Amino acid sequence: MDQNIRLGKIDGVPIGMNWSILVIFCLICWELADLVLPGYHPNDSTSVYWVVGVVASVLFFASLLAHEVSHAVIAKRNGIGVRRITFWLFGGVSELESEALTPGADFRVAVVGPATSLVLAGLFGALASLFNHGGGGTQAVIVSALGWLAWMNVLLGVFNILPAAPLDGGRVLRAYLWQRRGDRVSAATTAARAGQAFGYLLVVLGVLEFLAVGIFGLWFVFLGWFLLMAAQAEESQVAMRNSLANVHVRDVMTPDPTTFDSQTTVADLVDNQLHRYRFSSYPLVGPDGRLEGLTTMGRVRHVPASQRQGTRLKDIACPVSELPVGRPGEPIPDLLQRMQASPDGRAFVLDENDRLVGIVSPSDIARYVQLCMLQSQGRTARRR
Ligand SMILES: [Zn+2]
């Protein structure tokens, strides 16, 4: 289910890597060792190209990591939790648990990433000129690799600062417009639309390059398409957040959910209990009455029939530590943001004594949105 490999933690933030990045890593190693370095220094040995190429590729990924970690560190300093950092086909993503409370914080979290990349570019450039004595041999290959790293970081910094959400520059644009207009929603909508325009532009340029130059243009088409989709999703998310701004968790949640004993076996649940209920997720309580996690029909389905007898619900549950917790009086958009990062897309609702009073699932939200639409249709019809 989870396609990510866990790499460890930095400053308490888990770092993960999607399998797709391995392909990119191999491509970059190959490009450096087989094309770029031999192109500059045709007389060195293949082993030198490959050792320098692989080390430079690792340093390139370390640069990507530094970019994302800088976002995470500044987000945390501004009171924004960071769920995790994941690397995939198009670089890194820092998943934030909430949104910045002020335009200033929004700006700082966004701008630090490209700034870090540009500082790294300067560092690699300085190292390249330090080692460059005009001679040949292995040292010259290393200097070229350092120069390549400097350029890659320049590209990374410049591309990310383009004013098109979801790129960092789009966030900077959002912060700027938010400060000027005093309205976060309209600022975020403009930034997302700029992202869509930029996505279309990349697709068109990519097609032209594909026709004029060759296969490399397809990369821009993919990148543009991805940006377009992400920017469209962002715009509709902004609209949904806005329409739900005055809705509270208690309005949407399923109150007093049915709970199960965490020691119950999957066999017992399936054969004797489930036919009485109609929900898709169930909180689990331990012998002492404490919450121990949440199990879903999806998780139950993954247990093979032969293992149901020996598997307790606790064994397949999502642990409490990974589930977002909402409060009944909290605005629902804030909880929605945290739910996106949770493994099952669900949240517990606890009262001020930390007693379970409800759960929120994606279907609760869909039901609520549907109800709002029906009610507004009713109002429009009566007005006519
Ligand atoms: Zn960034």
Could you explain how this protein is built, in words?
The chain is an alpha/beta fold and 384 residues long. It has 2 domains: 4-243, no CATH class; 249-376, CBS-domain. 59% of the residues lie in helices and 14% in strands. The chain has 13 helices and 12 strands. It has helices spanning 20-40, 46-77, 103-131, 137-160, 168-181, 184-212, 217-243, 249-252, 266-273, 297-301, 313-316, 332-340, 362-383; strands at residues 4-10, 13-18, 82-88, 91-96, 254-255, 260-261, 281-285, 291-296, 318-319, 325-326, 347-350, 356-360. The strands form 3 sheets. Strands 1-2-3-4 form a 4-stranded mixed sheet. Strands 5-12-11-10 form a 4-stranded mixed sheet. α5 (168-181) packs antiparallel against α6 (184-212). The longest helix is centred in the N-terminal third of the chain and has 32 residues, at 46-77. It starts with a strand and ends with a helix. Residues 67, 71, 113, 160, 168 line the site of zinc ion.
Helix tally equals 13
Beginning-to-end CA distance, first to last residue: 50 Å
Task: Write out the distinct hetero groups bound to the structure.
Answer: zinc ion
Tally of structural domains: 2
List the helices and strands and how they pair.
Elements: E1 4-10, E2 13-18, H1 20-40, H2 46-77, E3 82-88, E4 91-96, H3 103-131, H4 137-160, H5 168-181, H6 184-212, H7 217-243, H8 249-252, E5 254-255, E6 260-261, H9 266-273, E7 281-285, E8 291-296, H10 297-301, H11 313-316, E9 318-319, E10 325-326, H12 332-340, E11 347-350, E12 356-360, H13 362-383
Parallel strand pairs: 2-3, 6-7, 10-11
Antiparallel strand pairs: 1-2, 3-4, 5-12, 7-8, 8-9, 11-12
Helix pairs in contact: 1-2, 2-3, 2-4, 3-4, 3-5, 5-6, 6-7
Bound molecules: zinc ion.
Zinc ion binds at residues 67, 71, 113, 160, 168.
